[in-house]
Structure formats: C-alpha cells, structure tokens
Design a protein that fits this description.
The protein is mainly beta.
C-alpha cells in the first residue's frame, strides 16, 4: 500500500483505506455490504472495487466515482430484489467498469438515474427490466456499455428498454451495444440528445424518440429489429450516416420511420434489406437526401406526407422503389430510381421524363388490407399500367437521375454479383453432369 496520509474506517471486520490526499477510497478486501462503504465515503471520493460479487440494491446519494480496479477482473453487482440494482440520487456520479446482474422481471430499472451529469462508462448490464432509466435528470452520458435482456421466453412487448429517458435532456449515448430488449434507446420529452455509434439488434425499435426536439441520431447500426429508427411526434431531429438493415420479419418493419415528424433531416443513411426502407406518414417540412435505399421490398412509402424535400437519394434493387398516397405536395427531384427508364436529351444526367409513383396499390390496400397479398403480382402490375386517373396529382420526381451518384451501389454489391455468378456456374455444371450421368447408354 502506498504511504499516504489516511484514516481507517473499520466496520463489519473490513478495513477501508481512505487516501485523504488523493481523494480516493480503496476497498482492500471485498466489503460484505457495499452500501456501508458508499455511505461512509466523502463527497467527491473515488471508490475502487477489487474483483468479486457485491450484493445490491445500492443507492448513491452523493457525488462520487464507483469503479472496478483495472487489474482486478470482474466486479459484479448482483441484485435479486424488486428495487433497482443501483440508484443514483445525486449529481456528478460516475460508474465505471461494473457488471450489473439484475435478472428479476420487474417495473424498476436495473440502473435508475435521478441526478444530473451522471457518467455510466464500460458497464455490462443483464436486465429483466429497463437497463438504464433516467427521469428528470439532465446532461448524462452512457458510453461503451453493453445492455442485454436476460430472461428467456418473454414477449417483446413485455420487455424493458435498453436505455430509457423521460424528461431527461442533453444526454449523450455513444458506442454502446444493446440486444434483445423492447426499444434499444427510447427518448420521451427529452430534448437535444446525442445517439451516436451504437449497435442495436433484435429489439422492437432500435432508436425511438417521441415528443423530442433537436435529437441527433448519427452513425448507428441497427439490424434485425422491427424498425431501425422511429421518429414520432418530434421536431428538428437529425438522422444522418446510420446503417439500418434486415428489418423485414414483421409486417410493420421499416428501416427509418417518420410519423408526425417535422423539420427533420434524414441524410447519408444506408437503408438495406428492410420491408420498407423509408416510411413517412403525416410528416411535413422534412429533408431526405443522399440516402442509399437498396434491396428493400419497398424503397420509400409516403402516406399523407406533404411539404417534404426528397432529393439526391438512390433507390436500387428494391422490389418496388416507391409507393405514395395523398402525398402530392412534396418537392421530389434528382433521385435515382433503378426501375425507371428516362430520356436525357441534353446530357445533364437528368431525365426529361418524370418519374410518377402510381397510387393504385396503396389505395386498394387502404380499403382492403387483404390485397397486400397481390403485391407486385403480374395482375397488379397490369392494373397499375392501365390506371391513369388524376395523374397530375401523383407524387412525382420532376427530374430523376439517369445514373446513381458515382455508381456507389453497383460497386457495393459487386461481391454479391460475383457470388451469384459463381453459384450459377456451379448449378450449371451440376446440371450438365446430371444430364451426362443420365444419358441413354449406347
């Protein structure tokens, strides 16, 4: 032990050395009751825990740092009660390097944050509730943390959220991994949050904001969720540079969903392999630009959406590029639609022919949902070709691109094409061999 001025706190047979000059408290042995150590520590202390299992629940009611020793291995806080495993009641509390095992199915969160400017760093949380929940607590940080659902056999609707914010403003959530929860990151009445570089898998909505303003959703990856990102009843949200893929197993799956969203920017995202890539309903004054929307069943779907700007996007390899209903008052120009064949007479890269989105299928399925079974069937395609009613009101790209920008999508999927070609060659070889083996002997 370093030679420093210190005082000894002895309780329950455990010695804790509080280093007065450094403001740090070291647990030299595993404390029988972590709560006692927290209660005895002075505000501003740093408590470093050696490896071992510590029983919760615990409550921290003063500013301090609780962390695992770097060389100590795992520090586990285990909780079997119906209370939160850890409750942060004060401002300026930091948790670092802890593993939280809180597998009881309950209403209370595994970590409940009630104070401002909390920092949760490098935590591992196994939860049967919300992983981290902040209420009326501002300016917090969650980073480099893993949150996983711990209870098998539960319906998604009965699970808790990974990170849950309510009336908690200016939180930063970066570089986290969240799996198999209800909503990965849920924000309600919580403005100016930063959600960046997180990976969210196998949940309902990967990122979900409701009644928020100026939320930034940037550089995240969502896959195998019901919906990658849902922006609902929100304003001035920025959804930029994310990748949302393989949200396709649910009838309501989308890559990005805007519902009652206004003045929001959706730009430079990769939206690949979803049921609907980009879904926009009852939303106005939004900007959607430079997104790569590829290999979805429907590239973009507009429902009662108006005054939006949709430009410089690339729709490539979708079963159908676009569907629209009652969405004629939008500015749509300069997008690439690979199902459209235009004519460029002046060589500017834009077609003089417009690309109009046929509303027949959307209108039919609105009245008779069962007609969805005929999606892209030969009969439906034939009927759409005949339908020309009120064509001037159809949602239309006035100047579609003849080629995608810099051939980004073709380059990205060259590997897929090579694999497809090799598989085709392999099957052709097998077929030829089969015919050779089955030939009639002479």
């Amino acid at each position: 032990m370093r030679t420093l001025p210190f005082c000894l706190i002895v309780f329950a047979g455990i010695v804790v050395a509080v280093c007065l000059s450094s403001g740090q408290a070291y647990a030299e042995q595993q404390p029988l009751e972590l709560q006692q150590l927290l209660d005895q520590a002075k505000p501003g202390s740093r408590i470093v825990l050696p490896s071992g299992t510590y029983e919760g629940p615990i409550t921290i009611s003063k500013p301090l740092t609780l962390q695992a020793a770097e060389s100590a291995g795992e520090v586990i806080v285990r909780n079997v009660s119906q209370q939160p495993a850890i409750t942060l009641q004060a401002d300026h509390i930091t948790l670092t390097g802890l593993r939280i095992v809180d597998e009881a199915v309950k209403e209370s969160a595994s970590i409940l944050v009630l104070g401002n400017r909390s920092v949760l760093d490098q935590l591992q949380v196994r939860t049967g509730s919300h992983g981290i929940q902040a209420k009326d607590a501002n300016d917090g940080t969650v980073k480099r943390t893993t949150i996983e659902w711990a209870v098998d056999g539960m319906r998604m609707a009965d699970k808790g959220n990974g990170i849950d914010l309510y009336n908690a403003h200016r939180w930063q959530m970066t570089n986290n991994t969240i799996r198999a929860v209800h909503d990965g990151i849920y924000m309600e009445n919580s403005d100016e949050a930063l959600v960046s570089r997180n990976v969210i898998e196998r949940s309902r909505y990967g990122i979900h904001c409701m009644y928020t303003k100026r939320t930034v959703i940037k550089g995240n990856e969502g896959k195998l969720n019901v919906t990658g990102a849902m922006v609902m009843a929100a304003e001035q949200v920025a959804v930029t540079g994310n990748t949302f893929s393989k949200q396709s197993e649910n009838v309501n799956s989308q890559g990005i969903l805007l519902f009652d969203a206004h003045k929001t920017t959706v730009s430079d995202n990769k939206i690949d392999g979803n049921r609907v890539g980009l879904y926009v309903e009852q939303s106005t004054a939004n900007q959607m630009e430079r997104n790569q929307v590829s290999y979805n069943f429907v590239g973009i779907q507009l429902v009662e959406a108006s005054d939006n700007t949709i430009t410089s996007n690339q729709f490539w390899g979708n079963v159908t590029d676009a569907q629209a209903r009652n969405s004629d008052d939008n500015t749509i120009t300069g997008n690439y639609w690979d199902s459209f064949r235009g004519i460029d007479t002046n060589g500017d890269g834009h077609s003089e022919l417009t690309y109009a989105i046929n509303p027949l299928f959307q209108g039919l399925t609105r009245k008779r949902a069962a007609f969805q079974l005929f999606f892209q069937s030969p009969g439906m395609i034939f009927l759409e070709g005949l339908y020309q009613t009120e064509r001037t009101r159809w949602t239309t790209d006035l100047s579609p691109l003849m080629k995608p920008h810099a051939n980004l999508i073709q380059t990205e999927h060259q590997g897929d094409k090579l694999i497809t070609g090799l598989m085709g060659l392999f099957m052709l070889s097998c077929t030829s061999l089969l015919f050779y083996k089955m030939r009639r002997p002479k």
